[in-house]
Amino acid sequence: MAIQFVLIGGSLVLLFHFFVRARRRPVQKLAMTVVFAAIIFLAIFPDVSTWCAHRVGVGRGVDLVFYLSSLVLLFLCFNLYLGQKALEDRLTIVVRELALQPHRPRPDAPPSGHAEP
User: What's in the keyword line of the UniProt record (predicted)?
Assistant: First the structure.
């Protein structure tokens, strides 16, 4: 089916891009490899998701994949929020420290009290 080629090709392109462009920790690389391997596996063998869905009480395999994907996306959004909040907190500390430092004139600034012509 055409969707299998799209899923497999897209997964390989995204995984390649992730490894080439992103500087990540080994654990993150392993997790992404497992996720994309699962996507490729389920694209090749879609009946496996249906079998797993029936084992956990979900009607269709696509529903199970959707539910799990929703959980993963919520986790990622929460993780991004926590990272952004930590950056904001660190920036606040740096700005406070800079604000409390004594004022030093810039080397290229004109002497105080004199207007430039």
Answer: Membrane, Transmembrane, Transmembrane helix
pLDDT at 85: 97
Better-scored residue on pLDDT, 19 or 45: 45
User: Which amino acid does the sequence have at 6?
Assistant: V
> Is 108 inside any structural domain?
no
**Of the candidates 29, 61, 57, the residue with the CA atom closest to the CA atom of residue 42:** 61
20: its two tokens: 């080439």
The model's pTM is: 0.66
State how far the Cα of 66 lies from the Cα of 103, in Å rounded to an integer.
56
Best CA proximity match to 62, nearest among 48, 76, 74: 48
The answer to the question of residue 43 being in a domain is yes
| Mean pLDDT, range 69-75, rounded to an integer | 93
Question: What mean pLDDT is reported for the chain?
Answer: 87
The sign of the dihedral angle between the CA atoms of 14, 15, 18, 24 is positive
Domain count, the chain: 1
